[in-house]
Amino acid sequence: MATAGKVIRCRAAVAWAPGKPLSIEEVEVAPPKAGEVRIKIVATGICHTDDHTLKGSLSSVEFPVILGHEGAGIVESIGEGVTSVKPGDKVIPLAIPQCGECSFCRNPESNFCQKSHFSEPQNLLPDKTSRFSCKGKQIHHFVWVSTFAEYTVVPEYTVAKIDAAAPLDKVCLLGCGFSTGYGAAINTAKVKPGSTCAVFGLGGVGLSVVMGCKAAGASRIIGVDINKDKFATAKKLGATDCINPRDFQKPIQEVLTEMTGQGVDYSFEAIGHEDTMIAALASCNMSSGVCVMVGLLDSGSEISINPTLLLTGRTWKGTLLGGWKPRECIPKLVSGYLEKKFNSDLLITQTLPFAQVNEGFELLRAGKSIRTVLLF
Fold first, then answer.
1. Inter-axis angle of helices 252-260 and 274-283, to 10 degrees?
2. What is the structure's pLDDT at 2?
3. Which letter does DSSP use for residue 370 in this model?
4. Are 67 and 13 in contact (CB under 8 A)?
5. Facing residues of 243 across strands?
6. What region, left, alpha or beta, does residue 313 occupy, with left being phi > 0 and alpha being psi -120 to 50 degrees?
7. Quick one: which of 249, 290, 250, 286 has its CA closest to 269?
8. What angle do CA 143, 87, 161 make, to 5 degrees?
9. HEC letters along 187-226
10. Is pLDDT at 251 greater than 80 in this prediction?
11. pTM for the whole structure
């Protein structure tokens, strides 16, 4: 391509400091080095994690930074040694890498990678330099993905090649939100047919959990949210009941236990609050219930629980990207989307031009969007 090996000047939404609106800037994107891929981003979703970060809630992120991690695009150029993708391929960049070499990647039970941002900072690429600059200043990467830019550079092991027929403005959600929620039910909880489930938080991830529970054959799926406007969509996607904790005088875990007799078989927390984490754990069956932590807590958060909640037999576990091994499984999920095995399009409530990124965040904060997709 004409741009291969050259610096590309393009638009990006730069977060100069926590708590400030994003600023649309012209940035320079350096060409990929060995083992790297430069991607032209076509579409990107706005995820709650981006908002968490923008507020300064994740201490590991350094500013100024280009956020965004739920995107899809086309390979523009590749660095030396890259073999899994070539220019022109449709791809989804991944917030969870899969190097394929570490002990976690070699473990069939794990989808975590020791190169993940939980193990090493991802504010810069692996060689500890940035490919972004703006107004003469270095701009940081975000979990090596940074999809709020027309072009981004990522390590090869954070790229999944997908079907050429995939509509990028729809399958971008599979880079984070949909895959995380759907997989939390299918892979992490391993929901059984005929079971009962409770889903705390009916945003993009929580609604994807609902879809996963339905696909797994759950007989009762109870959505829990303080925003009643989300109930109709939740029921359309498979929720059998929806309840608002503010409608009750007693703790929501007691309400759920009364509704189901002994508590639900599976509960999912897709919000990221300490109190709802504990409520979700307490709402599942005390003997055999499984609670899955899906939501992201602020940096430095700690949870204090009564150990009896676990002593009687409950299982409490977490999930990242829904337990999918990303480079292997995300392409298969895209194929499932094309085969109409699920309809993640129902999660997209707004599609906006990239320049309206701040408006997209306002819709998210106001509870008026499930997923806003930005188009370049």
1. 20
2. 78
3. S
4. yes
5. 224
6. left
7. 290
8. 55
9. HHHCCCCCCEEEEECCCHHHHHHHHHHHHCCCCEEEEECC
10. yes
11. 0.95
